[in-house]
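Reopening closed ticket. The problem is back. First fold of the pair:
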Amino acid sequence: MKLYEYAAKEIFSGAGIPVPRGNIVTSADEAGETAKKMGAVVIKAQVMAGGRGKAGGIAKSSNPEEASRNAQRILGMSIKGLPVRKLLVEEYKKPQIEMYIGITIDRKSRCPIIMASSEGGIDIEETAREKPQKIVRMHVNPLTGIHSYQARTLAYSLDKKNASAIADVITKLYRVFTEYDCTLVEINPLALTTDGIFALDAKMVIDDNALFRQDAKEEETGSLEELAKKRGMSYVGLDGDIGCIVNGAGLAMATLDMIAFYGGHAANFMDVRAGADAEQVKTALGIVSSNRNLKAIIINIFGGITRCDEVARGVVEMIPEIKVPIVIRLTGTNESEGRIMLGKHGITMASSTEEAARKVVELGHTDK
């Protein structure tokens, strides 16, 4: 479960990690009133999407009037398809140095890994790609937890003069990571200002399997991921133009790889999971086809628990609403029945993942 920035900062603050004073608002007037009390502020859209700054969803405001204008503009925005309904208005802290600190799980080593970089304020993926030497990584034994020397070593790599304060933040951030059963905690940037060290942004993702013991309520976001999750499916949006519907994470990875092999670019990862019925398939097609950039859809189903005829029925019922070509590969339980149903509607069929990927790239005219 992802937390909004303001919710993550509340947890950070409770753990002793310095964050700017802030207030959640839902109107331009409230933003103006908050700015009267704080002076210069930053208006930040609260949506479950990255790239808020590039989309215009973050704005510095020097006075209450400017804060109201910026709040009015941002509240009318939609960022990556998500409407902005609430804003975080927080006091402006001018960064002198911007750093990055993140903690996640390294599956290969089966333990937490802390990543730190002196190049904060930008996507860590960009730093890893352009300047990998700027990222320091350190594994933590989950049984013993983080040692003080580890925190000091990481802090020293970021800023020698303020290593003590940074080490304190790292130690407290690791405590948040473990106590809240997180799969990710991130501060980007952790900034040195004239008032000290502050977490100017915050990201937290709690393991869904641990929600039963966490006092964290999932808020409605209206996202496609949330809609899919409610129907027992998994959806991850990507930046391509070929929709991908499969049953099973392994098959999804293989399908995405094959699409890329033939020069295509997937628009998403949609796993309807084992046992999907016609209604789930219809929901999956509705979610995937809502992408305006879509040029084609590939459906790759291995019918074990999932019945191929159920999948076919869901596809047939959605055909009138789908405006792009569909390529389907069905194999397994009730495969013949499913193929007969789809054949009556002229849908392109494939006998293998490779063939389906090649055909969907050709039909979608995806640039190679």
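Second fold of the pair, where the issue appears:
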Amino acid sequence: MSTAQLDFESTSRRLDGEYELHYHEAGHGPPLVMLHGSGPGVSGWSNFKGNLPVLAERFRTIVPDMPGFGRSGRRQYERAYPRVAADSVRFLLDQLGVERTSLLGNSMGGYAAAEFALAHPDRVERLVLMGPGGLAVSLFNPDPSEGAKRLAEFMMNPSREGMVAWVDCMVANKKVVDDELIDERLANAMQPGAIESALSIFMSLGQFPEEVPLYARADHIAAPTLITWGRDDRMLPFEQALFAFRRLPRAELHVFSRCGHWAQVERKDEFERVVIEFLTRPA
């Protein structure tokens, strides 16, 4: 099948066992695992469906629904969610026979990718972290951010208006948002048990705080890392990029102007070009 013809069903796969994972897979070449964020209605497909055909032309591209999201199984958490998500990546790679991979993570997915790189440094080729969580403290902006407040408002009182308000914080270019996107995200978020699952994920961060925060351990991440950020991000403000950039020992930073939290959507072509150049650059 041509990568231009990729759709949900043709790329859909399942794994059962230690984790119940749904994922998408397409393409051939060096493996690339793409980890989505944690917003309402999110899944691997909703986050990266537009990028999958392009990246699958060069990579064996694997896009899981992280535990508790999309069609992956829900569970109880006995440690902070990013650690669980990172361990689910270990399970995924083990089951697929992938010894070493590059990882691309958006927001919470970036947090999980960084945790995986710390836990399994020998299994990470390169990292791409898109507005990642956990790698900075907010020094110059209100905490919680505007986007985080609207996310909490939606979770406490789900509605179409709340979804519109939250998505508005994700993008700088309003033209990339249409009724189809809002309706899809809302339908996914309102699936039975989805809100409860997301709340348990967010609550795990407070219930099981890290002794040493991720940003204080980031200097141990050995993999070459590309950090990308939207200058106009209202979920995780751009100033956090400088904090993360300073902490990661082998990092490069690319900032997209006129862009919010969803660079893969708002600056799709440029985002894909930057990612491909970084991942295919000679060591």
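Update: turned out to be a display glitch only; the data is intact. Residues 81-96 form the longest helix (16 residues). The chain has one domain: 3-280. Please close again.
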